[in-house]
Amino acid sequence: MKYFKVYSGLWLLVILMACSKGKTVTPTPPAPPVPASFSFNALKVNGVYNGFTYVNVNTKPVIKISFNAPVNHTSVTGSVSLKTKTGTAATFSTTYENNDSTIVINPAALQPITQYALEVSTGLLSSANGSLQSSLAIKLTTAIDSINKFPVISDDQLLDLVEKQTLKYFWEFGHPTSGLARERNTSGDVVTTGGSGFGIMAIVAGVNRSFITRADGLARMQKIVSFLKNTAQKFHGAFPHWMNGATGAVVPFSAQDDGADLVETSYLMQGLLTARQYFNGAGVAETGLRTDINAIWNNVEWDWFRQNNQNTLFWHWSSNYAWSSNMQVNGWDEALITYVMAASSTTHTIPKVVYDNGWALNGAIKNGNTFYGVKLPLGPDAGGPLFFAQYSFLGINPNGLADAYASYDVQNKAHTQINYNYCVTNPKAYNGYSADCWGLTASDIENGYTASSPTNDVGVIAPTAAIASLPYTPTQSMQALKFFYYKLGDKTWGQYGFYDAFNLNTTWFADSYLAIDQGPIIVMTENYRSGLLWNLFMSCPEVKTGMKKLGFTSPNL
């Protein structure tokens, strides 16, 4: 049996060898070795490492990106790019250091205040043709060009220029049919009630500065007042937020806001009464203008907006939706003027209890806390947007003004100082905020609109915020004005003065103008220089009576 097993094994071997005879077996060659990948090692922009985000970069930076292996020069062109955030490519040259493991990137000339993305893709190869393990993205924001964009002029000349240029928004761009102020520079026929009130005050300032003649100013006022009296749609004497400047029909501000807006109406009345006091001539034209203004003013049913005699005023009423918005005008904000106008009416007045209970919330408008080193008498924490200290005080003179709740020059100066101190402190570390560049208020932002403040700060500075604060912080406001004009003027200054807003953090600059932001620039600049609009408005006998009735004291009453 043993011999049989051996014999069988040999026989099987012979058979196998016979089957493979004449056939060559070729061994499979080994796979070529895969080049080792390589990785990022270090980054420096102008000799400094600061992660992957750099601000205030000069226009010709030296950027060094190092890897843990030498790079293939021919792969650099297709794998390294430098573009603006809008996709425009920037020209640059490359050299090499550290045995080709460091790429040195030298941009030809970047634009100031521009955001760039420097990207290195995984298409970059090592000299051994290994692939870069992970792509790189480096964000560069270039610095402000410190060269003055316009010749330096005296402070008075600069303030004249700002007033005169900004006035063009209301004078040259006023609606051709009604003369009222368009909501913004892209609004077509849509005009704004409150912004028109600001614009009326701006025209008065322009006449007084001889930027326009008294005769031309009077003619424009006649056009505006005639339209308001005879054409514009009204609700219990009050005007809507927006209307069509050609037809006077309401343009809804929001879904149910298609009727009266009492706060916007109060801004309009503030402007009309100021114009009435200015155009005080004995001739037929100016006498007729005053008569028409009085008819509009006396027709506003302020007391009706108490909604069934409640001790507060309500912001809106609509013939379609009645009081459905149910928004009270109360607490410290931009609407002090609404209560002053209501109390000053000789035909539809309100008693003091409506002011105390509605506006002042029986004292709950008081704050008293300290923010950024400044004690704030009234309002929300950190003061809120700066238009709170401006819209009502285009006509109401806060100097020496007091009531049971606050001293209003102290209030407005504190509010503005907090806003300034916040921007200088810059707790969110936004690029550009400084003693030169400050001011948070309601304005356009990139792809939207918001009411900026220390508690709602998105990095956007609005020139109107600091400039219209000239009466409160003259030194700081003038410093900001000069910065906006001289250093940023190629991006911030245009046909109607300063554009609405900008964000140095994202290098966004608005190309928009808004009536409610342009108006305070002129009016508060003029109040700072001469007190003109304050003096006119506070000279109204009805205003003196109304403010005294509410408990105000002032040397101007």
From TrEMBL:
Keywords assigned: Signal
Tagged with keyword Signal: yes
Entry keyword annotation includes Signal: yes
Gene3D superfamilies linked to this entry: 1.50.10.140
Residue stretches making up the Glycoamylase-like domain: 327-541
SbsA Ig-like domain span: 55-137
Residues spanning the signal sequence: 1-20
Protein name, per record: Beta-glucosidase
Naturally occurring in which organism (per UniProt): Mucilaginibacter xinganensis
